[in-house]
Design a protein that fits this description.
This protein has about 110 residues and is mainly beta. It contains one helix and seven strands.
Length: about 110
């Protein structure tokens, strides 16, 4: 609204300085990375609209171990990675701060 409510000179200057083609048409190949305590690299991969849709997990040598669904996009904010758990700061439905903890399962359960 601010652009449309501005004077013609301002609108003209804005049109000349920014073009639609300046906006990227693709997402980055990843958005975040973290190392856990065992040296595994967790890479957040964005989906079509930019949200994290999967995590790729690599071992210390760079071998892809597999894909994991992310428990939350907030896991790459204020977080602590353990050997088999991740804890991160989040909010509950009423906006109060909570710490969420998820187990990192690296083998198929029997």
């Amino acid at each position: 609204k601010a652009i449309y409510n501005s004077d013609e000179a301002t609108r003209k200057a804005l049109r000349e300085s920014a073009k639609k083609d300046d906006i990227p048409h693709t997402w980055l190949p990843w958005t975040h990375m973290s190392l856990d305590r065992t040296g595994r690299l967790w890479v957040a991969v964005p989906g079509d609209s930019g949200e994290i849709t999967r995590l790729q997990v690599f071992d210390r040598d760079g071998l892809l171990l597999g894909d994991v669904p992310p428990p939350s996009e907030k896991m790459f904010g204020t977080s602590a990675w353990g050997r088999d758990r991740i804890a991160f700061l989040d909010e509950d439905d009423e906006g109060r701060p909570v710490i969420r903890t998820f187990r990192l399962q690296t083998t198929t359960p029997k």
